[in-house]
Specification:
This protein is an alpha/beta fold. The chain is about 25% helix and about 25% strand. A hairpin with a 5-residue loop joins strand 7 and strand 8.
């Protein structure tokens, strides 16, 4: 038996701004918003409805992102980060520019010159990567 990876929790100083920024990046939707947390899910997750009795169907549902407020800002490089990838039908460079226009910053973390990924940071400095386009 396996457990389901249910959510990834991201600490932030402004959980609402961060959550809405990531919703724009991923084209996800806000499923829950309180002073304690903001939860994002893929749009299709809300379309699928409520509880699922079937284990296989439940395990295939996508994970959510949860943004929680913390008093301190980010101080060191993340030990865990998200890898995002455009579909092969999308223009990767245009997607990176879209993220930069939304407020991401490009980072040099020592990646090689021929890297097939680009390292960016969200508005609060959390690193993430945009990989090469793919269809799998």
């Amino acid at each position: 038996m396996a457990l389901k990876w249910y959510t990834t929790v991201i600490d932030c100083t402004d959980h609402r701004a961060q959550g809405r920024w990531w919703a724009e990046v991923l084209d996800w939707t806000v499923a829950f918003d309180t002073d304690e947390e903001l939860v994002l899910v893929p749009r299709h997750a809300l379309e699928e409805g409520g509880p699922v009795a079937d284990l296989d169907t439940w395990m295939r549902r996508g994970q959510g992102l949860v943004f929680v407020p913390v008093p301190e800002g980010k101080q060191v490089k993340n030990r865990l980060h998200l890898d995002l990838a455009p579909h092969s039908s999308q223009d990767r460079d245009a997607e990176i520019q879209r993220l930069l226009d939304l407020g991401a910053t490009q980072l040099d973390v020592g990646q090689p010159d021929m890297a097939t990924w680009t390292v960016l940071a969200d508005p609060e400095g959390n690193e993430f990567c945009v990989l090469s386009s793919r269809d799998q």
